[in-house]
Amino acid sequence: MAGPRRWGWRRERQPILKAVDFAIRPGELIGLAGVSGAGKSTLLNLMLGLARADSGEIWCQGRRIQPGSVRVLRWYRRVVQYIPQDPAASLDPRMRVRELVREPLVHLGIDGDHRRRVSEALAQVGLDGSFLERRPESLSGGQAQRVAIARAIAVRPRLLLADEPLSGLDLPVQAKVTQVLKSLNHDADIALLLISHDLSVVCRLCQRTLILDAGAIIEDRPTAALFRQPAQAHTAALLRAATTFSTTLSMPVPPSEAAGRHPTTQEIPS
Ligand SMILES: Nc1ncnc2c1ncn2[C@@H]1O[C@H](COP(=O)(O)OP(=O)(O)OP(=O)(O)O)[C@@H](O)[C@H]1O
């Protein structure tokens, strides 16, 4: 569906990304993990069409994505949306939730009943109508993150690019936001690329994991297999670092293999 191929991007003659070649299939939950400086943000900027690669290409549904092609990027924003790392900073403090969630619809010239779309998007992230008139300052971190997700899904994208969507949230709130992302994937069939330095976050959510190390994808495997037997020493080190902070890694069960059903967003408390 979407993905870069053989990317390179240089700053002052130093390549930041060297061997990056992967595709994201429709409805897939895929994690991209790597230590600080591995190139995650650079890759994200390229995938968002915000920066141009020195070499290589990015394609989405048969169209090549690159900065400058305004018409293609406008179409691309309807297909691929972004969930920022710091929702508090990304939400305009002067706007109400109603306006914040509607803004991308207006910006992208999407026709239709915006009121209904806004309410539906909020419901999908487990926020009811009482949030419509609230401003960002009155939201908790988890609520602000869910408003940021509602903004992204209001345009009904097929792929979400989420940059460290759980960072800065305490553990119970992380669990709620994780559940929202799982439900969006399961119920609305939205693919997700989750970018994180923390493999335990990827393990909780993703069926497939990519490991980025010094600008190269060194592993691209089903999450369960990667956790059982990392092929690279670097991955094993990342796993050890993650287990230091989390006990969830002792029993890695990707969503596709987990027994039982996911709670719906209506069952998730605000
Ligand atoms: N504008 C720039 N000029 C020069 N070097 C850069 C620039 N942006 C990034 N880099 C370098 O590219 C490498 C990858 O940076 P990037 O921000 O993509 O890593 P990251 O994996 O997202 O790290 P973090 O998790 O800390 O955000 C780093 O060595 C960084 O110093």
According to DSSP, the number of beta strands is 10
List the total number of helices.
Answer: 10
Q: Any ligands, ions or cofactors bound here, and which? A: adenosine-5'-triphosphate
Strand percentage lies at: 15-25%
Question: Cα-atom Rg, whole angstroms?
Answer: 18 Å
pLDDT averaged residue by residue? 85
Keywords: ATP-binding, Nucleotide-binding, Transport
Domain ABC transporter: 1-239
GO molecular function, one term: ATP binding
Pfam family, one: ABC_tran
Structure notes:
Mean pLDDT is 85; it is low at 245-270. The strands form 2 sheets. The protein has a 6-stranded mixed sheet, sandwiched between helices. Strands 2-1-4-5 form a 4-stranded antiparallel sheet, with helices on one face. Strand 1 (2-11) and strand 2 form a beta hairpin. It has a domain at 2-85 and 159-259: 3-Layer(aba) Sandwich (Rossmann fold), CATH 3.40.50. It has 270 residues and is of the alpha/beta class. Helix 4 (97-107) packs across helix 5 (114-124) and helix 4 packs parallel to helix 6. It is built from 10 helices and 10 strands. The chain has helices at 40-47, 70-79, 87-90, 97-107, 114-124, 141-154, 171-188, 199-205, 223-228, 233-245, and strands at residues 2-11, 14-17, 29-33, 55-60, 63-64, 80-83, 159-163, 191-196, 208-213, 216-222. The longest helix has 18 residues, at 171-188. The protein binds adenosine-5'-triphosphate (ATP). Adenosine-5'-triphosphate binds at residues 11, 16, 34, 36-42, 197.
